[in-house]
Amino acid sequence: MSSTQRAAAAQRLPAAGPATRSRAGIAQERFWWLEQTNTTEASLHLSGLLRFCGTGLTEEHVAANVAQMVAEQPALRTVFEEVDGELWQVVLPGLPPDIAEHLHIIHMDSSVGTGTGTDSSTSTSTSTSTDDRMAEAVEIARRLAHDPFDLRRGPLFRIAMLVLDPDEFLLLVTAHHLISDGFSISLMGHAATLGSPGPVQVTYLDHAEAQRARVAAGGYERELTHWKELLRDAPPITTFPLDHPRPAVWSPIGANLTDEVDPALAQRVRSLAARQRRSPGAVLVACYLIVLAGWSGQRDLITATSTLGRSVEGTTGVVGLFRNFAPLRWTDTGEWRFTDLMEHAQRSLYDASDHSELPVAALIAELEPDPPPDRSPLFQTLVNLLLVEDIDYCLPPPARMTGCSLDMMLHIEEWLGTYYLTWLYPTTLLEPDSVAMFNASFHTVLRQAVATPQISTEQLVDLVRDAARVRDREVQRS
């Protein structure tokens, strides 16, 4: 066996066994804390709303697929309990018998009955025209997506089939972040409509236990060495200018602003990426770094991105909280061109993926073991590329959360040929008008960079600084 094969074998998780109770994963502990400290319901709910036309799928098909998915995905039967200050995840042998708690079938047809009836598994609405039924279905889906979950009782997911007519329906998939990530929402949407690919070979419990054991044994030395080198002499904080002083203790209560990139501009982004042999994500991340540099006033920037966290064999088809965070750094010497920054962004994204298995909480424990309680350690902002393949959203991708664990989180998601930007921010630190200015700066930089990719980053940063000076004057006047 080669050294590469031995390394792969060492990372292979054990097969799914009979265990039904385990310490929560490292990432789950963080989200549990956010849930306990956040008074805003649904702040940690993830959701997707999908449209299906002419598929031949029936209510019976979807119900059978969901039942199979629940049987084969232990995460969907997981609840949580706290014992002596430690968080545990418990996999139930089955869900409560009341199917209405996790599967709703709602007929948007006035001839059948009245009322939205979201407390029953099969119900009807009062809409008449097709447009009215669609609008009401979307509103019902949004309400269902925000209904709270009981973390100790379960289930922690919800699926709704909103039937517009015999050949068309919407499918809402919602789950709590403790048991899922964005990729899991995609998996659940596929399984509910196309059927489950089969029982998982590993479970999230296996993953959580293996990850804890590897951290305890010092098994992430390669990743830890890489991130230590990247963050050597890093600035203690990089953030957007704040509207309010930081509270003594961090509050994750947040809001979001969603906008879309003009489709023609989005096409130019893809064309530029192809010409430069980069990914469109590299173009978008480079623009984000420019915006952060201009607003923060810093030359040495630390931000972060999210990674899939599923490189270990057997985890690709598993519902669970695998997504991880990885730092990004850019030191602007003033001599860069935008094409140089694109290349840097591409390398940084590759590095993040290549060193993604180390839980960010373990990195924090190593580099900033006693962080101040008023901010996130290591990095305060994040840019997250959310590209869900083979999923046809009937609406622009929804804002996935309202709880915010950082000073700013920018989610960029592709849908029908363009990019949707969701700026997620804590309301204790920022006002909507400021976030709107950050968003406007991103569009300005993106247009200019795509039009003249050889432009210097200094010129692009100056565009953002101009907007920052306008904001400063407005703040002083107010």
Written overview of the protein:
With 478 residues, this protein is of the alpha+beta class. Helix content is 38%, strand content 20%. It contains 13 helices and 14 strands. Strands 2-8-7-5-6 form a five-stranded mixed β-sheet, sandwiched between helices. It has a four-stranded mixed β-sheet with strand order 9-14-13-12, with helices on one face. Helix 8 (263-275) crosses helix 9 (280-296) and helix 9 packs across helix 10. The protein is globular.
Give the structure's gist in a few sentences.
The chain is α+β, with helices and mostly antiparallel strands and 478 residues long. Helices cover 38% and strands 20% of the residues.
Write the layout of secondary structure elements.
Elements: H1 3-11, E1 21-23, H2 26-37, E2 45-53, H3 59-72, E3 78-83, E4 86-91, E5 103-107, E6 122-124, H4 130-146, E7 157-165, E8 168-176, H5 182-194, H6 204-216, H7 221-230, E9 254-260, H8 263-275, H9 280-296, E10 300-307, E11 324-331, H10 338-354, H11 360-367, E12 381-386, E13 408-415, E14 418-426, H12 432-451, H13 457-477
Parallel strand pairs: 5-6, 5-7, 12-13
Antiparallel strand pairs: 1-4, 2-8, 3-4, 7-8, 9-14, 10-11, 13-14
Major beta sheet, specifics? 5 strands, mixed
Helix percent band: 25-40%
Instruction: Tell me how many strands there are.
Output: 14
Count, helices: 13
Shape: globular
Gyration radius, rounded: 23 Å
What's the SSE pattern? HEHEHEEEEHEEHHHEHHEEHHEEEHH
End-to-end C-alpha gap: 69 Å
Q: Which strands sit side by side, in order, in the main sheet?
A: 2-8-7-5-6
Low-confidence stretches: 1-19, 110-120, 389-396
Share in β-strands: 15-25%
Q: In terms of structural class, how would the helical and strand content be classed?
A: alpha+beta
What is the averaged pLDDT score? 84
